[in-house]
Design a protein that fits this description.
elongated; 623 residues; 17 strands; Rossmann fold; alpha/beta; seven-stranded mixed sheet; single chain; binds thiamine diphosphate
């Protein structure tokens, strides 16, 4: 009989025998494989954490006990065990289940998360709140070894180590971030894990002693006590002990019984934080994901038998284009360096890393450090390009202002995944990058509309001696608009993509293509709209803007980002300063967070599809 369908909440997990838990574990894994192969999603991390999740729900009493998962991409088993089996098949689809923790979905999800390295701070806050209220439940943070490369974890541990707050941190160590984990800490964990091989030896020795007739069993008990005493001396964890934590581990993340026992032990430790080191295997239970954990970290729908993606896309992502361009630039100019914060392949830098290993730096999940490192590299005479998803770049707001722009250093941020990103949803949309950057003095902010413009933009910033951000979307940006007569990309110059006598649509990035299509729709209705590509957002092309403003045609702005403080607002401010009328219509994302789902659904929801733009322009002119 299948066990998973009988689990409607953690209380049902607690009723299971150990053997039944093991059966549940393989059913959960199968369900995750089946669903992710249909829907896409984070596979390898979720497979690796199934047994640990079952052990957590056996020992802790969620939602009374509070469990916070770091990042939140690995909560599929948690969702399946906390009453969400029915909606699991809708994973990451529009109006379906989120791929990340979601407060709206369940009382078992404490925060809506998607960014890394926040769980220990969140859990410490919950634990202190508990103590202030005189409550006594447990608070648990589950954090990966990748997430533990993020500095915020150490700020939190340093604080927690002051005691006397009771807090349990579980280190889910699978040796992987998205790719192989990097840095001195990953070496440290390697040493601790190596000492864990001692456990295998210990188990074998115990089995052998137990088999000795008559005295075997008591002898095994005595020797285990001695071995346990040795354990705390030999297994490391000094780093965490120095931070004021009690360190327990490492333990086998496939052994539900052992983990349950350790969790019970940890629950009994009073008035201090405890770190439990669990060793798991990314991709566990699906051979292809075990062998290629990076490929299956996050995946599009795929065929289970072969691992091949369903529906191959022939076009290159913008990230791959950026990576290829960077290789070309690095070949021509040996000052060019590439930096990533644990997103080597995601940001298209794998090729660069192969060709120029000395000029490539993976700093771990440390966007703040990455930006300031770039400041140092630029100050030292180099031209660093930091390729980062726009949403994670938000982390480095102050570093960008204080360490880069204030120093006026030639650091270039390649802000990938700018705009909506689709099924990862609200934690991942890169819709704040324009408002975030428009106010930074000395900064160049460029948003090329396609791969051809992207190369021109990257070459332009290399020639300029300034801080810069080049923003581009997640998906492909194949050239689509014909060359503008003899005109090459220029910082501070916009490009007229279509002429028109009734209105002017000022658009940026991917929205320029939507504006061109909207203009075609309008044309059929007898409305002639000019379309301008505002590819240089800082500085803006004020000559052209004021000229257009002075013509008296109604202006419309279209951007795939927050309207507050965005391109339209800035254009309105500039026009107002000049005594010219503000745009009549500003299209973009309102003052809310956008959900997850297929990109087309989200663009539609935000009113950013060509037909919707055309309809609103029609209403403006004829309404
Ligand atoms: C601030 C931030 N930067 C980058 C990412 C992208 N990212 C998502 S998961 C991940 C790796 C996490 O590794 P780990 O914590 O070890 O978890 P695992 O997937 O190995 O279980 C990265 C880099 C992110 N979510 N947040």
């Amino acid at each position: 009989m299948r066990i998973l369908p009988t689990i409607s909440g953690p209380e049902d997990v607690k009723k299971l025998s150990l053997k039944e838990c093991e059966q549940l574990s393989s059913e959960v894994r199968q369900c995750i494989i089946d669903t992710v192969s249909q829907q896409g999603g984070h596979l390898a991390s979720n497979l690796g954490i199934v047994d640990l999740t079952i052990a957590l729900h056996r020992s802790f009493d969620s939602p009374k006990d509070q469990i916070v998962f770091d990042v939140g991409h690995q909560v599929y088993a948690h969702k399946l065990l906390t009453g969400r089996q029915e909606i699991f098949k809708t994973l990451r689809s529009y109006h379906g289940m989120s791929g990340f923790p979601s407060r709206a979905e369940s009382e078992h999800d404490l925060f809506d998360t998607g960014h890394s390295s926040t769980s220990i701070s969140m859990a410490l806050g919950l634990a202190r709140a508990r103590d202030l209220k005189g409550e006594n439940h447990h608070v648990v943070a589950v954090v990966g070894d990748g997430a533990l490369t993020g500095g915020e974890c150490y700020e939190a541990m340093n604080d927690a180590g002051q005691g006397p707050t009771r807090l349990i941190v579980i280190l889910n160590d699978n040796e992987m971030s998205i790719s192989k984990n990097v840095g001195a800490l990953s070496e440290y964990f390697k040493k601790i894990r190596a000492s864990a091989s001692w456990y295998g030896g210990k188990k074998r020795l115990k089995a052998r002693i137990t088999r000795i007739p008559l005295i075997g069993k008591p002898l095994a008990r005595i020797s285990e006590n001695i071995m346990n005493m040795v354990k705390s001396v030999t297994t490391g964890g000094e780093l965490f002990e120095a931070l004021g934590f009690r360190y327990l581990g490492p333990f086998d993340g496939k052994n539900i019984e052992e983990m349950s026992r350790v969790f019970e032990e940890a629950k009994a430790i009073p008035d201090m934080p405890v770190l439990i080191h669990i060793v798991t295997k990314k991709g566990y239970g699906y051979d292809l994901a075990e062998r290629q954990p990076e490929r299956f970290h996050g995946t599009a729908p795929f065929r289970v038998e072969t691992g091949l993606k369903r529906g191959l896309s022939s076009s290159k992502s913008a990230a791959v284009c950026a990576g290829e361009i960077l290789v070309r630039l690095a070949t021509e100019d040996n000052r060019v360096l590439a930096v990533t914060a644990a997103m080597r392949s995601g940001t298209g830098l794998s090729e660069f890393a192969q060709y120029f290993p000395q000029r490539f730096f993976d700093v771990g999940i440390a966007e703040q450090h990455a930006v300031t490192l770039c400041a140092g590299l630029a100050r030292g005479g180099f031209r660093p390009f930091f390729a980062v998803y726009a949403t994670f770049f938000q982390r480095a707001y102050d570093q960008m202002i204080h360490d880069v722009c204030l120093q006026n250093l030639p650091v270039c941020i390649l802000a990938d995944h700018a705009g909506l990103v689709g099924d990862d949803g609200k934690t991942h949309h890169g819709v704040f990058v324009i408002p975030m950057c428009l106010s930074m003095p000395n900064l160049l902010l460029l948003a090329p509309r396609d791969s051809k413009e992207m190369e021109l933009a990257m070459r332009a910033v290399l020639r300029a001696d300034s801080p810069s951000v080049i923003a581009y979307p997640k998906e492909q940006i194949e050239p689509y608009a014909a060359d503008i007569e003899g005109r090459s990309f220029e910082i501070g110059r916009w490009q007229i993509l279509a002429e028109g006598s009734d209105t002017v649509i000022l658009a940026v990035g991917r929205m320029t293509m939507h504006a061109v299509k909207a203009a075609e729709i309008l044309d059929k209705k007898g409305i002639h709209a000019a379309v301008v590509d505002c590819c240089s957002l800082k500085p803006m092309d004020t000559d052209l803007l004021f000229d257009l403003g002075a013509r008296g045609l109604p202006l419309v702005t279209v951007e795939e980002g927050q309207l507050e403080g965005g391109m339209g607002s800035e254009i309105a401010r500039l026009l107002d300063e000049k005594g010219l009328p503000a745009p009549k219509l500003m299209i973009g994302i309102g003052d809310h967070f956008v959900t997850h789902g297929a990109m087309s659904c989200l663009l539609e929801e935000c009113g950013l599809m060509p037909q919707q733009i055309a309809d609103r322009v029609t209403d403006l002119l004829h309404g």
